[in-house]
## 1
Amino acid sequence: MKKTNFYVLVFFLVLTIMAMMVSCTDATMSKLGGYGDTFTVKVLGPDTIITYHSTGKVISEEHSDGYYFTNRETGKLIEVSGNVIIEQE
């Protein structure tokens, strides 16, 4: 591969990465950068509110209405679904 072709390839790669970063919203960037942060998860029931604190990221699987995370108090995996409020601490 010629040197000039290599530089052109690198230039377009950098340009593509920059375009992707600029196109992200603040919420998307926060979601991507939320690893390592702790979150408060509130599950709203008909008469109760159950509050959990995660040790890290709260994750939602694709094609799922639920979330899972590790509970800070017990160290166990928690899976929740339904009416859920998730706040970064």
Note: The longest strand covers residues 39-44.
## 2
Amino acid sequence: MQIETTWWISAVEAPIVAALFYMLHGLRRDLQDRIERSDQRESDVVTRTRDELAKFKLEVARAYVPLSLIRDVDQRLSQHLLRIEGKLEGLRRGDQPQRSYGRRAEDQP
């Protein structure tokens, strides 16, 4: 009883091809998992970097902005709001609005 060589080749070839397909599928799945983990790590790094940058900006604002500058801005803002409030009060009373065209009332001659 002699077995043909083509049968032997077919008998050995089929499991080898199946094993190769299984290995390729495993490699593809492994690469996909690695890519997803890498994307997740990168997104975590970006989030952490943004948080650290926000903290640094806050620290710079606290440490490097002089208190006198903050007071000056606050004072100018308060004066401007008081002028706006005065104009609105005048409009409520029925006064004609005065046009200053960007000049303050106290700066006008």
Note: The helical segments are 5-64, 67-93.
## 3
Amino acid sequence: MFSGRCHKALTDGPSMSGTAETPEELFAYLDRLGIAHRTVTHAPLFTVEQSRALRGSIPGAHTKNLFLKDKKGALVLLTALEDAVIELKSLHRRLGAQGRFSFGSAELLRAALGIEPGAVTPFAVMNDSERRVSVILDANLLRHETVNAHPLRNTMTTTIAARDLLRFLNVTGHAPRILELGSPRHESASPAAHADS
């Protein structure tokens, strides 16, 4: 679907594949991978704007996550810094997709990643055993030491090292494409500004 180099999944010996329906199952998976993680519980958060209230208590880079599909039905999970402006109208040309992207439906999100709207997260790719979803990461996100994302529920935020996010994605067979995705948001918000936190 996308142009660019293919990345081979990296594994650390025996297969670590699995799925997670609960945060606890995700945490156990991270533990098996030897990935340190810290989680804070909070009120449900559905947008980047709502999650800004947590900035004082949860340090590190905070993400926006877009679940997208192109006109041929190819699926993409895009994870960027929360204040990145993502131009959806032109994104398909940068990624070599078949036509413009639109947001995937709630039903498609559940079927592909096993999560609900409002909880879109890179951690959910462990539920994509069929490798239907391609992952795109904002290069700016990886310039931070730690990254925050929901652990399959929007009532929690989990912090891991940026290098461990890459390792997690590789081990699950979702080696990401890393691109400079967008500049920090200014006063005028783009449609992507209302993406999941």
Note: The domain at 24-183+190-194 is CATH 3.90.960.10 (YbaK protein).
